[in-house]
Amino acid sequence: MMSDKKLMLIDGNSLLYRAFYALPLLHNREGIYTNGVYGFLTMYNRIVEQEKPTHIVVAFDMDKKTFRTERFVDYKANRSAPPDELTPQFQLLRDVLKALKVKYIEVPGFEADDIIGTISKIAETQGVSSIIVTGDGDNLQLVSDSVKVLMTKKGITDIQLYDINKVIEKWEVPPEKMIEIKALMGDSSDNIPGVPGVGAKTAIKLIKQFNKLENIYENLDQVSGKKLKERLAENRDKAFLSRELAEIVRDMDLDIEIDEFQKSEPDYENLIQIYKRLEFNNFLATLNKKAGSTAKELEKIDVIELECEEDVEKLIKQISKDDLLSLYFKTDYHHPMWCNLKSIYIEFRKQVYSLNIGEKINYKISWLKPFFEAKDIKKLIHNQKFVQVLLSRYGIQLRGIECDTMLLTYINDSQIQNESLSNVILQYLNVTVTEDNPECLVIKIQDLYQVLIKDLPQDLKYLLYNVEIPLSNTLGKMEIAGIKVNKKILETISEEFSIRLSKDEERIYELAGGSFNINSPKQLGKVLFEDLGLRVVKKTKTGYSTGAEVLEELYDEHEIIPYILDYRHVSKLKSTYVDALQELIHVDTGRVHTIFKQALTTTGRLSSVEPNLQNIPIKMEEGRRIRNAFTAKDDWYLISADYSQIDLRALAHISEDATLIETFKKGIDIHTRTASEIFNVDISDVNSDLRRRAKAVNFGIVYGISDFGLSRDTGVSRKEAKRYIEEYLDSYPGVRQYMDNIVEFGKKHGYVETVLKRRRYLPDLNAKNKMVQSFAKRMALNTPIQGSSADIIKLAMLKINDEIETRKLKSQLLIQVHDDLLLEVPKEEIEETTAIVKEAMENAYSLKVPLEVSLNIGRNWYEMEEWK
User: The DNA-directed DNA polymerase family A palm domain covers which part of the protein (predicted)?
Assistant: First the structure.
């Protein structure tokens, strides 16, 4: 009789290898490689959740020397040593398993398969069912009524369950006959010889006929095929040796009890430390929910409810100018213009107060208006911009912010996932708190602040308090303002695109000789490369590649290709922008309100989401038309202010290259100058093609491009591209020196920095893996340049906003698109505002070269003319 216990046996070596090769090389800031362990845990968590075992054990190979190598010296001799990036991960995995309280076993002279085979047999005798998790097909011989095998196939997501019927379905023989088949066909991966010339098909046929090796050799005369008989006869010893090597040992002398492997709660404290060190943030977030609070002082937090306005007034009267309070807002959604406020939590002198909003939000939140708007009540908050925008909907201005802990963590280390307060608390305070415990979150904000601010370098404090926190307020105003979007224009464009897509579709079907799903790469591949017989440019694991680069190469080879490309282009514009934007127009404002992600990128650049207004198409006419829908309100105008080549000017400043500096100071076109230098022609002889190539080189250098990348961008050979880069660096020796210096600085200090001392940590500069190190070098070259450009435009935004507020103008910043700012301006303020913008941007930061700004004006974002 089977018990209700279920034992999971995991082949540790097999799964770790599988994960390592399935995922790209991942590593933490210390340069410790983690992809194998990460992939292992991903599979482990999913399978445990799916199978719900009561007992778990992991088996490892201990070393290469086993009883099999003593029996056959060439056993597994063809296997190379694991890569340097994988070897340390075996110990990492053991450390994780200890923290998970999952027992692992390794025995000298035996393999993981033998341990699994022996334990599964012990379990069987005790009426315990087993499930084996492995990527090694040898384990199929262990399948029985009480043993199943979960076989990993491709990557870390494709897993197949084998029971007796599944083994018979695939191999046509019961599981115990798998070793007989392996004896005949051998196994090249393990260097098991088998019988030369006998493959799986023949082996299966023989075992189905004779049942086992002994019967084959006792009845060789009944084997059909003279050649096969000869091979079997000549390799009898190899066949029996191969069976011996392939058979999993099931009677090892293991002093174990199945209940030793009983599943239990992890050692959360230890596991959290390991996950933090390895930077497994997704696993940490899951751990939060499972573990609850691991800090005893958080388990008993009394919350005082503010039930009436008098309660709030009483609280405010107790607050002195020396007090520092923390705030936490619980909402049902992450967009401040669309969410509903559920409750507000205030931590004051280690006591938590809460205000449950309910349906009477306008009434209840007004009780706290004096508190929120008081400049002399110092407040800590995580993501103050979110709260600023949210409160603005109720006519409340958020003032008195002493620090935003989200921005504080971002300045401290831009690679931490900082938007989640629970994740940040876990990272820095080693306390696990879920978002479902807001009283626990709010009480830890001040601890988080004290820990991080204490050791923050002075330069970074300046960046935090003089740039990022003030900018957060400016960005909040921009989010509140939003931008007017004309829905009728979008509807018209959508209808036109639908007609165009129908025409493209009709013509594609006509040229293809029938209808099919144009959006299906598989169906499209069949049409192009089988039905129409076009040249196959590239294949993928799943079939023909129909990517844009393939279709571009085939553009002139069949009339159908331009229609497919147009269909894809228009379809994407319609779904991603034209239709999606209509859904995001706020019902109360008639405007679209993006969220500016201030604490996301490692370079300091802002990004925009829901919707991404930094990505509205501009290169092709169909895309640019969408900008027609972005308009100013009546009697107002949109002003666009764009920095000219700010990244290259930042490069000139940082590298101090004399030629670059002279070029910008004299107002010489930098791309023409570069073309003249690298192609050895007079400036007056530089044509548009040479300038285009030089432009690719200029920006390629900024982004740390390789000769391969430049070759792809310019259409020249890699050899020619390499020559371009060398010519460039010879022409601008200061840039070459900068490239050497910044990498050395990064290796020595572990980070690189911008003009405002914003840091990006790059431990990979000291990585042993050359590919990883090369990527880090590109980041080291690019970050000070792109990051300095980001710093400068942030300073410009602050100056513009301050000047508009000081002069009490109605003009408003709306959008930042990297090097470009968009403002909405009333007609009567155009002259004054354009002067403010130009002066602020060109004098935002003192570079060794001038900053230049071009201004354009119009009633919408598409029809804009140069402002002079």
Answer: 623-829
Pairing label, strands 159-162, 147-152: antiparallel
pTM assigned to the model: 0.78
Structure tokens at 794: 């942030």
Q: Both 36 and 96 in a single domain?
A: yes
Q: What three-state secondary structure class fits 864?
A: strand
In contact, 383 and 475? CB cutoff 8 Å:
no
Asked if residue 360 lies in contact with residue 308, where contact means CB atoms within 8 angstroms, the answer is no
Q: Which residue range is the domain that position 367 belongs to? A: 292-470
- At 534, the amino acid letter reads L
Q: Indicate whether 302 and 379 sit together in one domain.
A: yes
Torsion of Cα atoms, 59 then 65 then 71 then 75, to 10°: 80
Residue 630 C-alpha from the chain's centroid: 31
Task: Give pLDDT tens digits for 766-805.
Answer: 877 777 788 889 899 999 999 999 999 999 999 999 999 9
* Tokens found for residue 292: 């609850």
Q: How confident is the model at residue 77 (pLDDT cuts 50, 70, 90)?
A: low
Cβ of 497: how many Cβ atoms within 10 Å? 19
Q: Is residue 296 very low, low, confident or very high in pLDDT (cuts 50, 70, 90)?
A: very low
For residues 254 and 146, state if they share a domain.
yes
Query: What is the torsional sign of CA 49, 51, 52, 54?
Result: negative
863: which 2 tokens?
A: 């029809």
698-715: pLDDT as tens digits: 888 877 777 777 777 777
Angstrom distances, CA of residue 592 to CA of 389, 486, 579, 589: 14, 10, 13, 8
* 380 class by beta-carbon count within 10 Å (0-12 exposed, 13-18 middle, 19+ buried): buried
Token pair in block for residue 336: 């401040």
Q: Which residues pair with 630 in a beta bridge?
A: 485
Q: Which amino acid is at 596?
A: F
